[in-house]
Design goal:
The protein is α/β, with parallel strands linked by helices. Helices cover about 45% and strands about 25% of the residues. The protein is rod-shaped and about 110 Å long. One of its GO terms (molecular function) is transcription cis-regulatory region binding.
Length: about 290
């Protein structure tokens, strides 16, 4: 027995006619008859008395009909729930984000998305890339925006934003040594292990044949904002996202120096390959990808 058979049964019962049910359902009359026969065999009872050209529902059919109609209506209600969920974007978005997208990009993008979908709320958990991907692997969050694609093959990564890292410091540190310094001679600030910024920096230094172990590291700091504040205080120089220090570059409290080719990187949407994203999560992902292409 399946829902298709029940639809045919209900139609025949309603019209008291195989031919009218055939026309209503756009199914041939022999097919209608075959389905009713199969249903009767499965239920081990007769559902209709054939009285020449007319039919009459049996006692068993009268008992089954209300339940069949309810099953059909329940199925339609389930379908409508799914259809509504796909078009009615609402709910809470719990998103993990590394420090650059979490602090400098997502607040603006969340506000823009909420203007389109007022029934959306956000919970943004800011951590480094490794902690964010660990949270996805442990099923604590469904979606993350991170600054590097880490190893786990069970995660899917899709590039959505571009970023540029720059070598920066105060004018006192960089201008006073103009023409005489090399990167090994300057005090250096770096992010902690697991940071996407640190991974990108290390990859870039390796390509430039700069030995990261020989850098004069004076501090390892746990967030981009901590690096920025240490830069402004003159503690050292660093490689940092340009997005994080745009205001300081504009007002001159920090300057950047070119020490090689541009350091470009991507931010990635990350989620577990075996987890499906609900409609409101997928809508936000689509929004992020569309925003980047505008």
């Amino acid at each position: 027995m399946d829902i298709h058979q029940l639809r045919i049964f209900a139609s025949v019962y309603h019209f008291r006619s195989f031919s009218k049910a055939s026309g209503h359902l756009h199914i041939s009359q022999p097919t209608i008859s075959e389905h009713i026969k199969n249903l009767e065999e499965e239920l081990e009872c007769s559902l209709f008395d054939r009285l020449g050209r007319s039919i009459m529902p049996t006692r068993e059919a009268k008992r089954i009909y209300p339940k069949a109609v309810k099953l059909i209506e329940d199925l339609e209600a389930i379908k409508e729930t799914i259809r509504t969920g796909l078009t009615d974007i609402k709910g809470s978005l719990k998103i993990g984000a590394s420090t650059i997208p979490g602090n400098y990009m997502l607040p603006f993008l969340a506000a823009k998305f909420k203007k389109k979908h007022p029934d959306i709320s956000f919970e943004i958990i800011i951590a480094d890339t490794r902690k964010t991907t660990d949270s996805i692997l442990q099923h604590e969050i469904l979606l993350g925006i991170v600054g590097a694609s880490m190893e786990p093959r069970s995660l899917s990564y899709e590039a959505v934003f571009c970023d540029e890292l720059v070598f920066a410091g105060t004018p006192d540190l960089l201008d006073s040594n103009a023409g005489t310094w090399d990167i090994y001679s300057l005090p250096f600030l770096i992010r902690e292990e697991g940071s996407g910024t640190r991974k990108t920096m290390e990859d870039w230094l390796e390509k430039m044949e700069i030995n990261a172990r020989k850098l004069n590291v004076v501090a390892i700091l746990g967030s981009t904002d901590a690096v920025k504040q240490a830069l402004k205080a003159g503690l050292g120089t660093s490689i940092i996202s340009r997005r994080a220090i745009e205001e300081e570059l504009d007002n001159g409290s920090l300057i950047q120096k070119k020490i090689g080719p541009e350091m470009k990187r991507s931010f990635y949407l990350a989620h577990h390959k075996k987890r499906s994203l609900p409609a409101h999560y997928q809508a936000f992902c689509d929004f992020l990808k569309q925003t980047e292409n505008e």
